[in-house]
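Subject: mismatched residue count in predicted assembly?

I count 402 residues in my input, but I want to confirm that the predicted structure covers every chain. Input:
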Amino acid sequence: MPFDQLDLKRAIAGDERAMQRLWSQHAPHIDAVVRRLCGDPELAADISQEVWMQIFRALPSYRGDSQFGTWAHRIAVNRTLNALRKIRRIAKLEIDIEDDSAITENDSDRTFMAESIEQAMNRLSPGARAVFVLHDIEGYTHGEIGEELGITPGGSKSQLFKARAKLRTLLAHLVDDSPTAGKRKGHVAFV
Amino acid sequence: MSHLSEEQLDQIIAAERGREQEPLNDWRTIAARAREEGLIRESDSSGYRGSSQPWMQAAAAILILIGGIAIGRTTIGLPTVTQSAVNNVAAATPAPSQPTGATAPAASPSPVPASDASFASVDDAADALNRALRDYQRASQYIAATNALTKSPDSTAIYTARAAAFDKIVNATESALRTAPRDPVINQYYLATMGAQVATRQMASVGMRGF
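Triage response: the counts match. Full output below for your records.
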């Protein structure tokens, strides 16, 4: 059921059902960006709660001049990046490509490719991952990313270049001819 | 070390962009936080089972019940709302100002405010209410059996509609009873509603048989 103006008014008034409708409709996309920016699913779940509280608190300020999803998405990105800054993740040094500290997740429902890209993104530095997620997945411009992250557009481009270069290496096994990769090649549509 | 091409990476990114993901939390977790912060208003929360809800239903039920009594009396020529159940209670209760069992004539109603009705205890008042309700049921049944006015298409429709309304009240009072099974007031509402429902159905069926 689409989230309409009446639902919005009810949600602002504290109607749980209306709030749940709003959440159900937008949580998959909002939570996805939080998850991608965080990397760590547990941390992402915590930050997602904060994001949704912020969205509900800010509901009265939603003017309707943009799509609700876009408005909420902005809040999600801002809140997530702020949270990550707080825990000094953004300031961390880039993890070496050869580092094995990637966070892995055993979720049988995930496709092999989805797992691979998540693991690869987790091997990026937090800053490079944020730039990559915002630019290549969420469609932000370098100018917008610069504003969000407090860096120059040139810095954003540079981070993206590095991120993509690493990802091309980290995801190479998807097209490798090794027996292990060969078995799983069928999962990758483009090969 | 091999590399993906830029195009291949773009394809992977496009697939990732379109991938559906489950929310990171369930709604209960989010709702609990929102409730904690006062963002959810309990009275508007459908998922919340507050104790006030059945009481409100019970209150609504008794209002409808008394309204139904008033409408019924109007339609069958009995004293109207000014002599509602409260007055009947006062009339049926032995009181210095009124002889026991005396009822005011329909043509000259003399309403007695509830505050004027004197009872020795809550039990006395409850007994009086029981008697009044029994009187109402007996009177309704008597009128249904004898009054020509009940044997008209209009009155049959009215009683049928009232019976349907009583079904709703019974549902509401049953819901209230599940929350407070020992509450005497709710039990009273429930029994009274059931009695009135039976009487109304009888009246409706008498009306139908008359045609």
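The first helix of chain A runs from residue 5 to 12. Marking this ticket as 'not a bug'.
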